[in-house]
Amino acid sequence: MKLLPIDEIIPELLNTVQTHSNILLHAPPGAGKTTRVPLTLLDIIPPEAGRILMLEPRRLAAVSAARWMSSCLEEEVGETVGYSIRFDSKTTSRTRIEVVTEGVLTRRIQHDPLLEGVAMVIFDEFHERSIQADLGLALCLDVQRQVRGDLKILVMSATLDVEPLARLMDNAPIVSSPGRSYPVEEIYLEEPGHSRLPQRMASAIQLALRENQGDILCFLPGAGEIKSCSVLLDAAGLSEKGIQVHQLYGDLPFDQQQRAIQSGKNRKIVLATSIAETSLTIEGVRVVIDCGLSRRMRHDQASGMNRLVTVRESKASAEQRKGRAGRVAPGVCYRLFSQHTYSAMTAHTPAEIMDMDLSPLLLEVTTWGISDPCLLTWLDPPPEVALTVARKLLIELNALDSRGGLTSLGRSMAGLPLHPRLSCLLVRSQELNLPQIGCDLAALLSERDIVRRSGPDHLNSGRFVDVVFRLELLHDWRSKGRCDAVADISALKAVDRISTLLARLQKTTLKTKPVVPDILMVARLLASSYPDRIARLRDGATDRYLLANGRGARLAAQGTISISPLLIAILVGGGEQGEGVIYLSAEITEETIREELAGQIEKHDNIIWDQREGRVVAQRDECIGSLILSSRTFMPTTEQQLPVVLKAVADSSLNLLTRDEAFLQLQARVMLMRSAFKELDWPDYSDNALIDTLGNWLAPYIRNATTSRQISAINTAAALLNQLDYRQRQELDLLAPTHLVVPSGSKIRIDYCTSDQPVLSVKLQELFGLAETPTVAGGRMAVLLYLLSPAGRPLQVTQDLKGFWDGSYHQVKKEMKGRYPKHPWPDDPWTALPTRRAKPKGT
Q1: Of the residues 736, 763, 784, which one is the last residue of a structural domain?
Q2: Per residue, what are the HEC states of 61-98?
Q3: 515, 437 in Cβ contact below 8 A?
Q4: Neighbours of 355 (CB within 10 A)
Q5: Which of 204, 213, 554, 767 is the least crowded, having the fewest Cβ atoms under 10 Å away?
Q6: pLDDT reported for residue 512
Q7: Rounded CA gap, 549 and 570, in Å?
Q8: Three-state DSSP state, 367
Q9: Does 791 lie in the same domain as 687?
Q10: Would you say residue 17 lies in a domain?
Q11: Are 698 and 745 within one domain?
Q12: Is residue 169 classed as helix, strand or coil in its secondary structure?
């Protein structure tokens, strides 16, 4: 057997495994840890102790690792070494090493909390920090601490900062392998101008072919760039030169992925996503070309939507990619970015748990029996905001009750290898006796798209965003053996296989004759699993919708489906300016929504003051989330309308009220008493205070008023007066009287509003003989006298009546005597009789 770098530390590793429960193995890429370590552990873990489970982040890596280890033992897969991935397993009773993918491990723990028959769990490539690996480790540590102290856990990582992980695992010992790789030359190819990435990659490949020997591994962010680059290479005639071009990405059919990593006679170029960074060994690679980008799924907590974003890779990823060129001989790594860009990269790739949809994780943890995921041990605890969003979704799916407890439906959902939305759909299909449609839908939505999204047609055809169109394609292919040219045959076969496996998992036998998809039944199933994605066409729009979760979205392609007023937005990606893009949808009717989501339809009474019409308007809306299904006017109760009317009065700054003279005078008199007698508890009748206390003084009078006319008819002075008790009313009349009796015997009204002092407007002749200026508030405030002419025009304003008689009166007399000869203008006002009349005739 060929010696590998990891072999140097195998004795130390085996000794550490025998003496510790938790171990951390740190080894660089290419050291051989994935395929060599599990086999050597068989020497110290006897068969009766149980199997070794090794977790791999991807299906391709799991199958490849199992096959390689089996070949080392000169056995078929499924004997000593086997694998279990979603919907596929090759193991026997003799299997001692089982390579599993992440979801398989989690479900294994849920079904068997004691992990009986398992001696050790190995987490490979933990530095990738997938959400399922974090969850799997948290659950295994919980099992170990609670019931399985003998369970051993080995975490293997290439580039992760291992110290925090060691502390997480109860200060686990770290075994490190220095590794041994050949030198790799770094060549930075900075971007020339503004050429597109596929073109730059194709040019770099041509350069690498001329300058180097061996196979070339090229890293691109996604399938779109890979396909575009492949077209450019085909046009360059590489196949005519005996050079094979392979594509490698997650949605590619499994057999094509296998061909990409297997060695061959001809020189080859592999165009890959980050799937080829770790775990997979592609023999013969001497050159790596790295674009420096990767594509990551991010979950927008605010909208509940996933968004696929292209991001700059981390330094750790760049080193992983570079290392692929130095596994068998000295190599070269071309980087399509500058050294400055490399220096600015983050050290490590962020953990998926920080920006992924956490509803699957929360359902798993709740099924495990822990309501708060933070009670488990995490390297990075799940963000609280993301957990809140996940909990809301699971409650809407009826997987959790309102208190966060697991429901019977939630327990059924947790046992299925699907996202909670699709597991909910599958369970609902059984309840409605629609197993065929349910399995087909779940398979279609969990596997790669069966529709080829290429060419100009899909941009202008609504069928490309219609899930029923896909069900029809699947039906036609099954019944006729042929299908529309837009369909991907390999994807159809994969969906058909998964649908059959899902039916078998639910112990359901599908009908031999293909079932024609029923649009209404499809809508019912999707409504149960995507209640927050019910969408209504915006008023006046042709392709823009409002979703029940409150977000806006537009159809990715226009066509017949765009005329549907209601639909379910199944697949929604992030768009520009906060608007999502609907890539997959299904039509739905209001009747179906009411049938399937009756429990989620809420009634909201919207009672407002219509300022234009000057009245209360009441509207009752039936809503599902942010969508209004129906609206009608209704007659609100007094208790419902009163706050609205009071708010309208407040918003008008009391202008809706009739504030007549009686109101204004009363308001001013009380404010005078409040100012003059601070030691007494007089209420605040300022406008601001009255607005703040409308519910106290105005509510009893306005209870039945619903229009501005009715409001204006209210006796506001009476409303204010009723806020004063008997003592206050008596004191008000005594200390801030409405009228004063002057020497002439006239009863003159006091004006409390004209000035900041009470004003008494009285004819000069009516005050003859009066020396003291009148006062209010028990003598604390003098009245401001407006002394009037016989015609009622002001002659003097004073608060010093005695001074007026002794002084300026004589000048006034001189000016007025000739103008008003019929009225008395005595030389001695002190002794003159006060009068409100003119002099008698003849005097």
Answers
A1: 736
A2: HHHHHHHHHHHHCCCCCCCCEEEEECCEEECCCCCCEE
A3: yes
A4: 20
A5: 213
A6: 60
A7: 13
A8: helix
A9: no
A10: yes
A11: no
A12: coil
264 plus 323 within the same structural domain: yes
CATH code of the domain in which 282 resides:
3.40.50.300
Take residue 674 and report the two structure tokens written for it.
């409040």
Predicted pLDDT at 647: 96
Pairing of strands 184-188, 331-335: parallel
Task: Verify that 706 and 759 share a domain, yes or no.
Answer: no
| Shared domain check, 433 and 336 | no
Whether 129 and 111 map to the same domain: the answer is yes
The per-residue pLDDT for range 527-545, each reduced to its tens digit, is 999 999 999 999 888 888 9
Token couple for 382 = 């799940």
CB 670 within 8 A of CB 685: yes
Please list the ranges in the chain whose pLDDT falls under 70. 1-2, 159-160, 180, 191-193, 254, 278-280, 300-307, 453-462, 510-515, 558-562, 574-578, 840-843
Identify the domain boundary among 736, 768, 798: 736
Handedness of CA 711, 712, 718, 720 (dihedral sign): positive
Q: For the residues of 754-806, what is the DSSP string, one character each?
A: SSSS-EEEEEGGGGTT--SPPEETTTTEE-EEEEE-TTS-EEEEES-HHHHHH
Pair of tokens at residue 365: 């943890």
Rounded to 5 degrees, φ, ψ at 57 are -75, -20
- Domain region containing 40: 5-176
> Residue 714 carries which DSSP code?
S
pLDDT of 709? 95
* 232 and 345 within one domain: yes
- pLDDT tens by residue, 1-25: 567 788 899 999 999 999 999 999 9
Element (H, E) at 40: helix 33-41
221 lies in some domain: yes
Residues 461 and 518 in one domain: yes
- Look up residue 645 and give its DSSP letter: H
Cβ-in-10-Å burial (0-12, 13-18, 19+) of 767 comes to buried
Count of structural domains, the chain: 5
